[in-house]
Amino acid sequence: MTATDRSDPPGTDPVEVAPRMADLDGLRSAAATCTGCELYAPATQTVFGAGPSSAWLMFVGEQPGDREDLAGAPFVGPAGRLLDTALGRAGIVRDEVYVTNAVKHFRFELRGSRRLHKTPAVSHVRACRPWLDAELRVVRPTVVAPLGATAGKALMGSSFRITESRGTVLDWNGFALVPTIHPSAILRMDPEDRDAGLDALVADLRVIATAGHEPRP
Ligand code: URA
User: Fold this and answer.
1) 59 lines ligand 1 (CB under 6 A)
2) S-S: 106 plus which of 59, 69, 98, 122, CB 3.0-4.6 Å?
3) Given 2.40.40.20, 3.40.50.2300, 3.40.50.620, 3.40.470.10, which CATH number is that of 14-212?
């Protein structure tokens, strides 16, 4: 077979498809063939959001990591385990929340056989946005919680600063939006600072839990 004989199956254009899908299963299977940006090619698979469509809370992370790329599910690696610990301490049940990412393919660079996380570019966040908008439209959570700067900027724009707004309840497009730190940032802290980092994440999650009981803004 020559290169010109090769015909890849047509991919899914999120701009065209995502706004037309009415439920999470349809969105998930459409996103599985997304070719909206170049990140689909080296990644193992699309990592779509997970959780019930009745979720009261939606966490938005940055992008899947190495473990998530292999497992096909968000926040199942070290950052996810830390998030689970913090959720437990704040009395939030993970099975009742929806967890997703601003970018749904793992961006990495190869160092030998290791795949090292690479922060997604603004163009990747933009290309993936129709999937996130569709998840918000279908789930309609009471509270949206961006985890870290990439997710915060994806939703609030480039002037968003996590240090200024974490743990505060903002009114965003009819949702209560409460930004907080990304669990990976705690994992990157010096060991002696990690307990305080986790305590601060739990404090933000308690604000989120309270916002979930308030009427929609
Ligand atoms: N970090 C993220 O932002 N998302 C994941 O799913 C895992 C790690």
Assistant:
1) no
2) 69
3) 3.40.470.10
